[in-house]
Amino acid sequence: MKLLQNVMKQVMIRDPNQPEFHQAVKEVLESLEPVAERNPQWVQAGIFERLVEPDRQIIFSVPWVDDNGMVQVNRGFRVQFNSVIGPYKGGIRFHPSVYLGTIKFLGFEQILKNSLTGLPIGGGKGGSDFDPKGKSDGEIMRFCQNFMRELYRHIGENTDIPAGDIGVGAREIGYLYGMYKKIKNDFTGVLTGKGLTWGGSLVRNEATGYGLCYFMEEAMKSIKGKSFEGTTVVISGSGNVATHAAEKAQQLGGKVVTLSDSSGYIYDDEGIKLDTVKQIKQVDRKRISEYVKYHPNAKYVEGASDIWSVKCDIALPCATQNELDGQAAKELIANGCFAVGEGANMPTTPEAVEVFLGNGVVLAPAKAANAGGVATSGLEMSQNSMRYSWTFEEVDAKLKDIMVSIYRNTSNAAKEYGHENNLVVGANIAGFLKVGNAMYEQGV
Ligand code: NDP
Q1: Given the CA of residue 373, which atom of ligand 1 is nearest to it?
Q2: Pair (244, 181) in one structural domain
């Protein structure tokens, strides 16, 4: 019998209604079977049971007043998953679909991702079912302030350091940090992604998307002898990760032809003009469909999922979980796609993963490929501790080194455990080994 099957069963019995969490845990436990076989002392010490159970799950009420003077109530979450190698760290997501299972899947992934960065950071995640779309700045501010009014008591620069994620960008981090400081009277690096004049790090904003491309460049070169140069790239999403992945892919010589939001996608055969996208999304805060008003030769297609039918060499899903399924994976391969890099967390379904791996596509899993954001957050924490700031070039060079080293560790672990070029298995094993060892050494 497989050693870790009972761990999975227990997860499903304890938390039956959390399919995304099950999906993330199942993939990791399957990869870790050979690790369990080689380390019976870890099985005996319950390391795997403990890995899948968060240290702490905090759920709180967030009442706030809307622009009509009505009181609205949302639900806030913070899951502190594992802190054996450093303080809990992970983003905050504001999206109406958020429930405990979303935050648990993201927090669980974060443990291994943070370990892969090589920095001393544990795993956690937070969020709310608050929908920022269509809200005024005042409403966003009042919501963030009330969210922090409860969260502040659970976080700290040596305890738990949140950051952004879907729906939480520079504006929200500003309001959250402002409230934390008012309550605590303490100017510390308790959040990352801060503004550059009050403790933020250069490159943090760009880091996840840039890091994804640095990882892909290394993976494609090593496995296929290829690079972004001269390729056509399809990217989903049009938020922080997607726009910066597009920017770096273009700098590396790729032609990015799509971006999307949850309503549909734009296709620009001449290559997406990122200045226009930044104006629409970051300044005007409008929908991606506006793009065709500026560039009438481009096309807007209603419905986000059809994006994977666009012919490309490289696909970078950068929107949300399970956005690319088995059928889409087959379509991409039929159209000649040879590499897929997960900018979003768990964007490919298990069926799609199987299709890609079975057809020799370079598949870069999120916990390795999108770790550049949290790695640069780790660099922001270091700069805050030193009361010092590195230049853009210094942080960018460190980010690049980290992404290359994540690729090497991932690739080596895959090879050592008999799955050469399977970066999914490699990332799970390489991320886990340090955590498992620390858990064992620190006792029960
Ligand atoms: P943003 O909020 O900046 O952007 C999210 C983008 O994804 C928007 O274009 C949004 O469109 C789209 N999107 C969201 N939900 C859906 C959906 N159900 N279907 C289709 N499109 C959707 O978030 P980020 O760019 O920060 O995050 C994107 C992904 O990257 C997430 O999976 C996140 O966890 C991951 N990530 C982010 C990091 C970071 O540093 N920010 C670090 C590591 C991972 P719409 O406006 O219509 O909702």
Answers
A1: 40
A2: no
